[in-house]
Structure formats: C-alpha cells, structure tokens
Amino acid sequence: MKTLKHLFDNNLAWAAAIREKDPDFFPQLSKQQAPEILWIGCADSRVPANQIVNLPPGEVFVHRNIANVVVHTDLNCLSVIHFAVEVLKVKHIVVCGHYGCGGIQAAMDDHQHGLIDNWLRHIKDVSRFNADQLEGLGKAELLDRLCELNVVEQVRNVCGTSIVQNAWLNGADLSVHGWIYNIQNGILKDLETGASALCSDGG
Ligand code: CO
After folding, report:
1. Three-state DSSP class for 95?
2. I want to staple 179 with a disulfide (CB 3.0 to 4.6 A). Which of 12, 96, 127, 165 is the partner?
3. How far is the CA of 183 from the centre of ligand 1 (A)?
C-alpha cells in the first residue's frame, strides 16, 4: 500500500513552523476550541475554508458537502449546526458557495451522474424556485447566478432551522451570512443576504 509519506513530512514541517512561532499554540488549543465562525461550504478542493480567510486551526468550525447545500432532514449538517450554535456558541454562520461549482453544473446538465443526482435535486429545486431570475440568461451567466441563488436559498434554510430560530428567540448574538468565492481570482464576495434576528417568514 502506498503510504503518502510526503504528507507526513509536510505535517511535521507545518507543526514545527507553528511551534517555532508560538511554542504554546498546540498545548493551548488542545484545551478547548472556541471558534466564532461556522463555515458551511462546498467540498470542492479549491475552496478550503481556513485558507481562504487566512485563519489558523481553532478559528473555524467547518461543514462541507457538494454544492454547500443545507437540507432540512440532513442529520449530518443539522448536527454540525446544533453543536456549533448550542455548544460552541458561534457568533456567525457563513454559507459560502463558489462560482464554477461542479455540483451546480452537474445539476443543470442533461446527463445522469448516478447517486449524486439525488443530492443535486436540491439544486434543481433552487433553479425552479428562482426560474424568473434565470430566464433568458446565457449558460455561463445562468450557472453563475444559480451559484449565488443557491447560497441565498441555503442561508434561508439555515435561518429556518429550529436551532437558529431558537437561538434567536433566546436572544443569541448570531448572524447568518451568504458569501461566494471566485476560484479564478481567490476573492470572496458578501452577497448581503444574511440575517441576524427572527424574520417574519421564519427565515
Ligand atoms: Co462546488
């Protein structure tokens, strides 16, 4: 079996560099984590949460899946949100999509892709909910817009969870943000679709 030895070499060098700058970094961090941010992003290898915002270990609690989808019945994602909000008491939940998302593209093409098509149905739903905004757009423009609209929809889904609704009812200092990342230039954009309190439509 191949052992990926170079990754262990990388790891030793990485840990040594951090210890050299701050000998207490790992001992301190091992005692507790107190991140202020929950990041819900795409699993795409080009969109690594900590690196994009240049934050060290301990600062970002992360959930990633294909096309950064928040599904009401996904116990994995809901458990992450629950732990982040109720135990870690994060102050921000960021849903971060990205342009050029393969999940969004796959949802909108005419081929079958196997099991993942069932997951991508959620993206097809987003396109159906927003059909009026996508009408008449060329293919590239439509995909870019759908990447944005998907973030807006998933922010709405986060806000609508009982977890976030209850946090706001209890007066928690919790904001939900919708961002999008451009893999062509490494730049993040705030879609200004977030919320930080109860909305009349439940999110
Ligand atoms: Co993606």
Report:
1. strand
2. 96
3. 10
